[in-house]
Amino acid sequence: MIRFFTEYLIDWKNRNHRKPLIVRGARQVGKTYTIEKFGNDYFSEVIKINFEETPDLQQFFKTNDVEQIVRNLEIYFGKKILISGTLLFLDEIQTCPEAIGTLRYFYEKLPDLHVIAAGSLLDHTLNDLQYSMPVGRVEFGYMYPLQFYEFLIAVNEKTLVEFLKNYTIQEEIPQPIHNKLMRLIRLYFIIGGMPEAVKIYAETKSLIDSERIHESIIKSLEFDFSKYGTRSQQITMIKLLKYIPKATGQKFKYSNFDHSIRSETIRRALDLLGMSRISYLVRNTKATGIPLESGAVEKVFKTLFLDVGLSNHILKLRPADLENINLINEGSLAEQFIGQELLCLPPYFIENSIYYWMREQRNSEAEIDYLIQSGNQIIPIEVKAGKTGTLKSLQVFVTERKLDKAIRFNADLPSSIQVKTSIKIGSGMKKVNFQLVSLPFYLVQEFIRFL
Q1: What is the pTM of this model?
Q2: CB atoms within 10 A of CB 431
């Protein structure tokens, strides 16, 4: 299975000023598989320690003497650790916090040794780390479920990926190719990007088989709740797990979720799900300038789930015949998909944040689905499930913020038009003039290039 994250790992390997790498991501998004495959492809030897499977090896990391650690590992594995040819892979490192602390000393004492650490619940350990966190001595990489392009490659549609990567917006996409890509988008909405679910579908072409994988993943996520939450928090997290897919695209209101649970308890459960990378907060921002974070409103947010396929499973959307289910008209699925793809945008050493804009005023409500930064620009993004939809909020936003470009994702063919009109804002009329780049969902990874 091809993962674009591997390109980042190759760059990390070849850099002169490299630090030990900590790979962060939710459970079962493919961290271990990707790192092991990278190690086998680009190193003469891989020394892998899974601290969950071999907890006795934690004893080696009671010391900060990394040269002694290397000698002990050589004796244990019966292999010579070569500075330039060996990858030391510390998997499930969250179960051995001492090993996180030693990463500093690997950087200082053995800077040429390639060391990668990973763990599914790593953020919880980093948040509560009692040992000295190796700040400035490590670097991070972020992994997510398979992007749509990676999904296409997995289901033997690599030619389509090459076509989209080389496509220019001036070209016309033939209708049969567009229709095929939209069918594949619909398929991705159902299967999602969890590697095991994609793999089983690629092998069997059975949606039922991928559904079984979805169910096992959900159960394993629920099982993990006992590792980092109290009994009360576990109950709230399970409820949130089932609620968030229903609430995608909506402002999160504690009373709408469960009015019987204190908002402080709900917020703590959301924090725990966020540290597990099961859900993400899409925070409201005033968007008065760059950076968007400076205008973020802490208490106003939407939630985004880990994966669109898992969302559908939780919502019990189980189509026996994919062609007879017009899921593309479901706005929440489209917004989940676009948000998921925005989080995956490279570079992979940056933890992406996405925002939205909302104005709640009587007779003057407006909302932009997503806002991102591209260089020094604010890019507003609208998501429309079908081929049409109003642009009133977009017109208000670009006019008030004096922007000249906006993006719309929908089910139609690509287009780029200059929007010139007038709109009532407050008590007066304002002229509207901006470029609207309208793209089908399958071109989400290309929109910054088009801008």
Answers
A1: 0.94
A2: 9
430 CB-contact burial (10 Å; exposed 0-12 / middle 13-18 / buried 19+): middle
Compute the half-sphere exposure of residue 450: CA atoms within 13 Å on the CB side of its CA: 27
**H or E element, residue 304:** strand 296-305
Strand 279-285 and strand 355-359: the pairing is: parallel
Asked whether the beta carbons of 302 and 252 are under 8 A apart, the reply is yes
- ∠ Cα 300 394 411 (to 5°): 100
382-421 burial code (b ≥16 CB/10 A, e <16): bbbbeeeeebebbbbbbbbeebebbbbbbbbebeeeeeee
Name the burial class of residue 271, with classes exposed (0-12), middle (13-18) and buried (19+) by CB atoms within 10 angstroms of its CB: middle
Alpha carbons 214 and 192: distance in angstroms, whole number: 9
User: In 3D, which of 322, 276, 290, 317 has the Cα closest to residue 403?
Assistant: 290
My answer on whether omega of the bond before 347 falls inside 30° of 0, hence cis, is: yes
Burial of 150 (0-12, 13-18, 19+ CB in 10 A): buried
Q: What percent of the chain has pLDDT over 90?
A: 80
How much is the average pLDDT of 198-214? 96
Q: Are 249 and 240 in contact (CB under 8 A)?
A: no
Name the residue among 238, 212, 240, 239 with its Cα closest to residue 224: 238
Task: Please write the tens of the pLDDT for every residue from 97-147.
Answer: 999 999 999 999 999 999 999 998 888 877 776 555 677 899 999 999 999
Between the CA of residue 399 and those of 356, 392, 420, what are the distances in Å?
A: 16, 11, 11
Beta strands at 377-383 and 405-410: parallel, antiparallel or unpaired: parallel
List the domains of the chain with CATH numbers: 5-142 (3.40.50.300), 148-343 (no CATH), 355-450 (no CATH)
SS3 230: coil
